[in-house]
Specification:
Elements (H helix, E strand, L loop, with lengths): L1 H17 L24 H10 L3 E7 L3 H6 L4 E4 L2 E8 L7 E5 L2 E3 L5 H17 L4 E7 L5 H6 L8 H14 L4 E13 L2 E4 L9 E5 L3 E5 L4 E3 L2 H14 L2 E2 L7 E2 L2 E12 L4 H13 L5 E11 L6 H4 L4 H24 L11 H5 L9 E9 L5 H14 L10 E3 L1 H32 L1 H160 L6 H12 L21 H15 L1
Helix pairs in contact: 1-7, 4-6
């Protein structure tokens, strides 16, 4: 308790001296010796947020640790000319560098105040206007989420104390409204919701209704009237929260923590027009006293981790699997909201069920994404940046939450009931006096009325007797008509029975006729099947004959082709033999000339003999053999021998 009291005093002094939302010049103040390395927030960011009401994403890069400085490697690249963009380098990945753009990118030198002014202060302002707001920190374990949200050290105050300070500061400086603030603090540990302000409540359930939306049933909601009380309850909740040592973070959060601040805003003064409207509503019996209720959810998500890096075993590994499963469900819900899917799996996890209104519902949401500037965590950084990119596509539908002020309404109803009770008592006294004065007159009037009523009753009885007699006569006619109708009905039933018998006979004839037709049809189908079989066999035989004929024709065609080739060869041989015959004749002519020159005496007799012998030569004939051998040239050899003998004799002479 002494440490908590000392911490409260230190935080109060630090907030008063260094964290006043506005300084004397009316501009946002800052903590001394904490230079802002990024440009200040301008009005365009707020205009863009109001225009589309989507989830606003602020990226914060954790400063490098001593181990990271020794390695001197960072996968992130910043461009001072583009404060909303950064580039992630992964040399071993298929895509070596990826560019991302968010609402704001805060480099490692950014302070807590830079984070607050970038995307948290406008959420607090909206909550004070009656909207629901959510500030959520996401990232891998050890990236600085709890430091960003829940730190209460004076030199680096987190977002939760700053939001509480902003609420109490604006409430104290608003002369036109009164504020009441209440606080709840829960954690989701392995899918169990525990109240950190009342640790005995460790299995709370989530409910939903039309008035309050999604809420945790049974959670303790304590009223707070100052920043000191809020810091006290934060310290109590931190003592009950689950932390553990891992290889990546010595003080690792093992549960999702949610701080819920509810602000009820009431009007302190009314304008003349509002007063007249209120009086008119009072005359009509309608209450117009309304308040604005804003809820601020500050969510510190447990960090995602890989077991091979965190080296968690046993209970720590079970916790890590539960954390990763809930964060996976959160990513699936954000992806479904970003793509406008009809089904969003909010009920698959307690975390997503609690944040249902913050993701596409009635809330203004800012997502603080914390990443580490170390090359060994490049894959985890890529996963966090992809998650943030999808979250920017989620659009919310925030509305101002106005409700009837039940306290004022209760007071008005109680005052009205007291007035009505006094009036009723006065009326009862006056009524008793009037009853005593009018008792005799009432008895006389009652006697007169009784006589008049008796005369009226007698007249009505006579009319009733006449009506009953008329009804009896009508009943006789109805009975006769009913008897006639009964006789007609009996005749109709008899006719119906006859028709049913005829129908049965016709049905039997029809059945026999149908059976005969079915037999004929079966016979026809059988004969048709036999004819089809015979036709199929004939077609197969014809196909075989046709195939045989085609084969025979193919053989004949091949034989004809071979004969045509042999005929061509024979014609070539005949041409060669004709050429040889011509050359032989030419040689004989030359021989004759030489012989004539050698034997001039026999020249006279030789021509006659030669002409006679040449005339005796038979002509060349072509006679093909049966074996297709070469053509045979036949002529008589006798004239040749005789001419040769004559030439020899002439030479001897």
């Amino acid at each position: 308790n002494k440490q908590i009291a000392k911490l409260n005093v230190m935080s109060k002094n630090a907030l008063k001296s260094n964290f006043s939302p506005l300084n004397s010049e009316g501009s946002p103040s800052r903590i001394p010796n904490s230079p802002i390395v990024t440009p200040s927030i301008n009005s365009n960011d707020n205009n863009d947020r109001t225009a589309n009401d989507r989830v606003k994403v602020i990226l914060r890069v954790r400063p490098p640790t001593a181990n990271d400085e020794r390695k001197r490697t960072s996968p992130l690249e910043f461009d001072p000319a583009k404060p909303n963009k950064l580039v992630l380098h992964r040399p071993d990945a298929p895509v070596t560098h990826t560019e991302f753009e968010f609402d704001r990118v805060l480099p490692p030198g950014a302070t807590q105040q830079d984070v607050y002014l970038s995307g948290v202060k406008d959420v607090v302002d909206d909550v004070l206007k009656g909207y629901n707001g959510t500030v959520m920190a996401y990232g891998q374990t050890g990236a600085g989420k709890t430091y960003t949200l829940g730190n209460i050290q004076p030199q680096a105050i987190g977002m939760i104390p700053r939001c509480a300070a902003e609420i109490f500061y604006q409430a104290s400086n608003d002369p036109f409204h009164t504020y009441s603030v209440s606080m709840s603090y829960i954690q989701i540990y392995m899918e169990l919701i525990q109240d950190l302000l009342n640790p005995q409540s460790d299995n709370l359930v989530i409910r939903e209704d039309s008035g309050n939306g999604v809420f945790v049933a049974g959670v303790q909601e304590v009223p707070v009237s100052s920043l000191e009380e809020c810091l006290h309850y934060l310290a109590v909740g931190e003592q009950n929260r689950a932390f553990a040592f891992t290889h990546l973070n010595a003080h690792s959060s093992r549960s999702h923590a949610v701080v819920m601040l509810t602000v009820v805003k009431r009007r302190r003064y009314l304008t003349p027009a509002e007063k007249q409207a209120e009086k008119k509503a009072e005359r009509e019996g309608v209450s117009t006293h309304k308040v604005k209720v804003g809820k601020l959810y500050l969510v510190d998500l447990a960090g995602s981790e890989r077991l091979k890096k965190s080296k968690s075993v046993g209970q720590r590994a079970t916790e890590a699997r539960s954390i990763n499963l809930s964060l996976t469900t959160l990513g699936m819900c954000i992806s479904a909201r970003a793509m406008d899917d009809k089904h969003v799996p909010f009920r698959d996890s307690k975390l997503t069920r609690l944040l249902q209104e913050s993701l596409g519902g009635n809330a203004k949401t800012t997502l603080l994404v914390n990443v580490a500037s170390a090359q060994e965590h490049a894959d985890e950084t890529m996963q966090s940046l992809s998650f943030a990119s999808r979250a920017m596509c989620v659009k919310n539908k925030p509305v101002v939450n106005e409700r009837v002020d039940y306290k004022i309404l209760h007071a008005e109803l109680q005052s009205r009931m007291d007035k009505e009770n006094d009036r009723a008592s006065h009326l009862e006294v006056a009524l008793s006096k009037k009853e005593e004065a009018l008792d005799d007159a009432m008895q006389a009037a009652v006697a007169n009325e009784k006589a008049r009523f008796e005369a009226i009753i007698a007249a009505l009885q006579r009319e009733n007797e006449q009506r009953v007699a008329h009804m009896h006569s009508e009943m006789e006619g109805v009975r006769e008509l009913a008897a006639h109708e009964q006789a007609h009905r009996n005749s109709l039933e008899k006719r119906i029975k006859e028709l049913e018998v005829e129908k049965a006979n016709m049905a039997e004839k029809h059945y026999n006729h149908v059976a005969m037709l079915n037999a004929q049809i079966a016979d026809l189908l059988e004969r048709q099947a036999e004819e089809a079989t015979a036709h199929r066999q004939a077609a197969q035989a014809a196909a075989l004959e046709m195939a045989s004929a085609e084969a025979t024709m193919a053989q004949k065609e091949a034989e004809n082709e071979r004969l045509r080739n042999e005929m061509g060869k024979m014609q070539q041989e005949m041409g060669v033999l004709a050429s040889a015959h011509k050359s032989t004749l030419a040689a004989l002519a030359k021989l004759r000339q030489s012989l004539e020159a050698a034997m001039p005496d026999a020249a006279a007799a030789a021509p006659t003999v030669d002409r006679q012998r040449s005339s005796d030569l038979p002509p060349l004939t072509y006679r093909p053999d049966q074996s297709r051998r070469a053509p045979v040239l036949r002529q008589s050899s006798e004239p040749v021998r005789s001419s040769a003998a004559a030439a020899a004799a002439a030479a001897a002479a």
